Amino acid sequence: MLAFFTLNWRNRDRPEFEGGRLTTFDVSNDRQEADRSLQEQSEPVVKLPPRPIPPVPKPKVELPPRPLQMLEVSKEVFEASDISKLGSNAPGYTKMAGGGPQPGDSAKVGTAPNGQPLYAAEWYRRPTDRELGAYLPKNMPEGGGWGLVACRTVEQYRVEDCIELGNSPPGSHLAGAVRQAAWQFRVRPPRVGGKSMVGTWVQIRIDYAVQRIERQVN
């Protein structure tokens, strides 16, 4: 009987409320976090450009030296082998064709004092007797004679650097007379391969004749 009266008949699962007590909740921290989250979502996102990738240098490949497959020739043979000049009047064409001098080429008569070819002169204008007579020697041979010189052609059909080659009769000084009068000469430059070659050498010969005047006595 004692145990029966000491039992607690109240329902322990039933919530108990204390009257007159007000429970409050602090939501300020939650609101600040929500505002911060909305602010972060509203800010524009700035995208930085990608960094340029530096180019990777290509490895330099050095090939071992090899002998060139080429034939060494002279300058004259190289110029003559130019196919763009075939069939023209360019120097070297006659050598390649094997046809000899072309029509109109100057005749080669020897070698100049400097070793270059010497060609026969062709007059552009023949000198006058007055131009030649001013340089005749004092002791002019009675039978006449000739003087021979070699001159280098220059622009405007002139010649310079003349050198005495010979005269007849010997000791007549007629070659000196031709050399002194040569500044007045007008000579065409030699033609080689169909082209005028200014600067080449020419051989000039002047023949002198003595005219005898016979007087008749009545």
What does this structure look like?
Strands 1-2-9-4-5 form a five-stranded mixed beta sheet. The chain has a two-stranded antiparallel sheet with strand order 3-6. Strands 7-8 form a two-stranded antiparallel sheet. It has helices at 2-5, 28-42, 75-80, 93-97, 129-133, 174-181, and strands at residues 108-111, 117-120, 122-125, 145-153, 159-168, 186-188, 191-192, 195-196, 201-208. It is an alpha+beta fold. A hairpin with a 5-residue loop joins strand 4 (145-153) and strand 5. Helix content is 20%, strand content 21%. The N and C termini lie far apart (218 Å). Among the domains are: 74-100, no CATH class; 104-208, 2-Layer Sandwich (TolA/TonB C-terminal domain), CATH 3.30.2420. Residues 85-99 have low confidence and may be disordered.
Summarize the structure.
With 218 residues, the protein is of the alpha+beta class.
What strand line-up does the widest sheet have? 1-2-9-4-5
Beta-strand percentage range? 15-25%
As residue ranges, the low-confidence spans are 85-99
- The geometry reads as rod-shaped
Query: How would a crystallographer describe the biggest sheet?
Result: 5 strands, mixed
What labels would you give this structure?
single chain, 218 residues, alpha+beta, TolA/TonB C-terminal domain, 5-stranded mixed sheet, 6 helices, rod-shaped
Chart the SSEs and their pairings:
Layout: H1 2-5, H2 28-42, H3 75-80, H4 93-97, E1 108-111, E2 117-120, E3 122-125, H5 129-133, E4 145-153, E5 159-168, H6 174-181, E6 186-188, E7 191-192, E8 195-196, E9 201-208
Parallel strand pairs: 2-9
Antiparallel strand pairs: 1-2, 3-6, 4-5, 4-9, 7-8
